[in-house]
Amino acid sequence: MEEANTIAALRGHVAARRASGRSIGLVPTMGALHEGHLELVRRCAEHVDDVVVSVFVNPTQFERAEDLAAYPRDPDHDASMLRALGDTAPAVLFAPSVDEIYPAQPRVTVAVQGGLIEGLCGASRPGHFDAVATVVTKLVNLVQPSLAVFGRKDRQQLQVIRQVVADLNLPVGLLGVPTVREQDGVAMSSRNRRLDAEQRGRARALCRSLVAAVDVAHAAREAGGPIAVADLRAAAMEVLDAAPGVVVDYLDIVEPDSMQPGEPEVASDARLVVAVAAEVGPVRLIDNVEVGDPDDEDALLRAVAPI
Ligand code: AMP
To answer: The pTM is what?
Structure first.
């Protein structure tokens, strides 16, 4: 695994590989890597010859300076986790400084318009997705991969990036990888490191609220009827409301493409994203499930053992 801290070094490594006919994939991350990130690398390696992993804590996408300062950073551990992947270890680890990516205040950025960012994290984090869209566009332009891989854990982010690629004609394929969970069902996140034992226990409420929504959808399907979105919401909210120390930011139920609310009642096979964000102790956690996607539902139900 080659390590590049500068754009020039990155471009050199990538150009040499491309010149020898190798295809390139990109996995953008903010570091403090965990098994979820490693899964993205493995999945990317299934499709391309050489994977580039970027580790860059993008300052522009944080609304609060204290969140940026507190974001976990562990560069040595990141590099050793990636090396330990062996056969599927990335070819290049790109870990630039902030000055390397933003040598001056940028005058051109990507702006995301419309319904896609009206709800969920877009509502509570103004400007966040513009910053994500901008940095991902820059990374794609730097690496020029044939494939870029993202997690479905950040479901709205994935949809925003799909829109960026479509609207700006970026010549890159996208792959969304299912959420990797801890043994108790909690979605893996770099932010989980900042939870103490009690808060970590409380964090289970997020995935359990999603299970409650999936259970309602299953029951509606078994009864052969439509799914009432309000029932999904009520079931999920009941779990969240009963959880001490979990301050809900949103529990949104949206259509997977538009990321906007749809009809109050949907057919039993309709797809809906149930997405939750909540503050637990010092961190804001997110999770989601795509109701109507059997793989996503099953993965959640398998991971979240009944208590
Ligand atoms: P981050 O470092 O948190 O910005 O995440 C980098 C990439 O990893 C994004 O595409 C995330 O969606 C993805 N990711 C983060 N956590 C998980 C997880 N638990 N399962 C799958 N993908 C994840």
So the answer is: 0.97
